[in-house]
Amino acid sequence: MATVDIENSVEQQPKSMGTAWYMVVLCMIAYLFSFVDRQIVALLIEPIRADLEISDTQFSLIHGLAFAIFYAVMGLPIARLADTKSRPVIIAIGIAVWSVATAVCGTAKNFWQLFAARMGVGVGEAALSPAAYSMITDAFPKSKLGLALGVYSMGSFLGAGLAYIIGGVAIEMVSKIGIVEVPIIGTIKPWQMTFFIVGLPGLIVAALFYLTVKDPERKGVVEGDSGYAIKDVFAYIGKNKGAFSAHYLGFGLLALVLYALMSWAPAFLLRNYELTTRDVGIYLGTLVLVCNVGGVLSSGWLIDFFTKRGRADAAMLAGVVGGLGAIVPAALFPFMPSLTSTLVVLGIALYFASFPMATSAAALQLMAPNQMRAQVTALFFLFMNLLGITGGATLVALSTDYLFQDEKAVGFSMAMVACGSALIAVLLMARGLKSFRATIEKLQEV
Question: What pLDDT is stored for residue 221 in this prediction?
Fold first, then answer.
């Protein structure tokens, strides 16, 4: 393909698997920071609701829709660049943008200011995963792709876990300091200071990515190929609508399961048990670091296991396993008689609900030509964000506010939304396995 330099980034094939794994680890660290910045708001739910005087439904819009709307709008244009330009530079810029936007959340004085700042976080994060998935797929053989994508996806749950733990500790620390007066910005409350603490360090990761990561050579492209226009992407998806509809809707609904649980778990524990924010942060952070990280690594291993046994639909099949495994524990956790049993069952639900993070990525990278991957990934993230993140946050809030009309019933809302979504997702994806195999076979024949 024609090489296009942006700034001083250079495209080249990794000289060794060590170089490829360095890239994966740094992508994983970036993903970690993105999830810290994304999830920290869930732990701050009570002080934000109190200070800004908003309902659960309004909070869900800040947590879900505000993040997803610009993520979705900017996803395709950024992905188009990632299919043809330097992917490391695009990722570095994205990290810088979302880090600054997270810090800006700490200056918000009302609902709309926080909503706007959260949109900025979404714009920045739209640059990461489509480009990262594409780079990782070019750097690894198919037999190792599942594990590599699993390691990358692990960053999301390391980040979510650390968001809870660091956030809980940070909130306790800044609460002791109290309200701070800052020139120009004005009064900064403890929950606002937390956004500064978790956001600004991401700028270091952005600089490291820009200076040390080189773009791997793209597989399966020819000299002078300038990539695919968006109309070509939609035409390709239309020709393979059976596979893409099963993937986009199925994995989007499984993402809804995950975010319904993770977005509202802090509120559930704070409202139903006599726990401090620090305690909730430590409990949930530990749970996510053990169960979600274990789940995403297990799903990557499961993809490679099925692949080595000749299953062309290995990635989709592993996603179905995750969806099935999540249904029962997601239904049972709010009915447990003690905090310990609640955490154990919730942990099992989170373990299986984390399977789609790696499996959706691995499946998608096999469904499209090289220079279309970032764009089909961006379209998936549109579904995952609007359906998964926004749906997971808002459907639970609507059920709590208008169906149960009791904020302590948030656990029942979580269980109802998660179980229903998981069941529908499994049915859609199971029906789509045949179409998925056919799409891969056609692509391999080209």
Answer: 56
Mean pLDDT of 334-362: 91
Question: 203 pLDDT exceeds 90?
Answer: yes
The dihedral over CA atoms of 215, 221, 225, 230, expressed in degrees to the nearest 10, equals: -80
Number of domain units in the chain: 1
Distance CA 15, CA 31 (A): 24
CATH code, domain with 260: 1.20.1250.20
Q: What is the mean pLDDT of residues 416-443?
A: 92
Residue 200 is assigned to a structural domain of this protein: yes
Question: Residue 285: CB partners within 8 Å, gap ≥ 6?
Answer: 161, 162, 163, 164, 165, 166, 168
Beta-bridge partner residues of 180:
188
Q: Rounded to two decimals, what is the model's pTM? A: 0.73
Domain residues for 280? 17-216+227-445
Residue 53's region, left for phi above 0, alpha for psi from -120 to 50, else beta, is left
pLDDT for the residue numbered 227: 63
d(CA 216, CA 194): 37
Q: Judge whether 1 lies within some domain.
A: no
Q: Is residue 181 part of a domain?
A: yes
- Asked if the structure places residue 8 within a domain, the reply is no
Is residue 67 within 8 A of residue 385, CB to CB? The reply is yes
